[in-house]
Amino acid sequence: MDDFLYAPISGASYDKNTKMLTLKGNFSNSCLEMKNILVRRPAGSGNNVIEVLPEAVLKHESICTPELGEFPHSQNVSLENMGEGRVLVHVRSLNGQAINVIVNL
Length: 105
Known about the structure:
- The strands form two sheets. The protein has a four-stranded mixed β-sheet with strand order 3-4-6-7, with no helix packed on it. Strands 1-2-5 form a three-stranded antiparallel β-sheet, with no helix packed on it.
- It is built from no helices and seven strands.
- By secondary structure, the chain is an all-beta fold.
- 0% of the residues lie in helices and 54% in strands.
């Protein structure tokens, strides 16, 4: 378990030409927004796994009046410095609904 609120991610796609991973999903609350996306290759994974941790944050009530619904979001993340070869990209998501894609860097 992590101490982070992860963004809800429903899909991930990789563009080999730009070396960019695109994350897509829907926030269920208008006061949620992306805070940070950490990309790392953890030790002990045989060096063939990349973890993507999309951290979300809830805006303070004085800034945002919450509305429920579907609020699409899309973020691009560079995998340029993640090496070469075939890897599993593991994207954490809200409620444990991780997305896994295999890409050739």
